[in-house]
Amino acid sequence: MTMSIQPSRWQHLQQATLVRLLLALFATTLAGGLAQQWAADQLRGTSWAAVSHLCGALAALLAYVAYVRVVERRGVAELAARPAARELGLGLAGGALLVVAVVGALAALGVYRFERLNPGLAGLPAGLAQMVFVGVMEELIMRAILMRLLERALGTWAALLLSALLFGVGHLPGDGAGVL
Questions:
Q1: Statement: residue 1 has pLDDT above 60
Q2: Which long-range contacts (CB under 8 A, 24 or more apart) does 47-56 make?
Q3: Cα 178 from Cα 169, distance rounded (Å)
Q4: pTM score of the predicted model
């Protein structure tokens, strides 16, 4: 006699892509946002205030790891340390080349011009820390969560299209952003 074990309603619900998507988004954004705000409150008025952004990024990463291990019950290969340094270097170099190419092309067309260089570096650490937080949150939300789960449910091309569309729509409220 063979017995088949039926999954509970909760286990069945956990397998749904939309539920996993919402759980992952909730866990990572809540942890990242709360940690960043708590650290900002603790460090306000000190020279270490920019560290709050790094705390938020770390909390979001840890929450994502916890979500993957608890809900999806798997290792977090997408955050493996071994390829991370190489991929980070390639991403930074590629991004810098794209910025230089676009600004260079705009300058060559006369649409953009350099007026002066800002010699002060006082705001650079805070700006970099903030961009680390923004970058980590965007990558977790758009790639590690949204695209990965959509790819699992709908396939690669649909996941690419939907995640790119949502990424673009998410940037519409930004300064200088438009539909194009």
A1: no
A2: 49/126, 50/125, 50/126, 50/128, 50/129, 50/130, 51/129, 52/129, 53/126, 53/129, 53/130, 53/132, 53/133, 54/129, 54/132, 54/133, 56/32, 56/133, 56/137
A3: 9
A4: 0.79
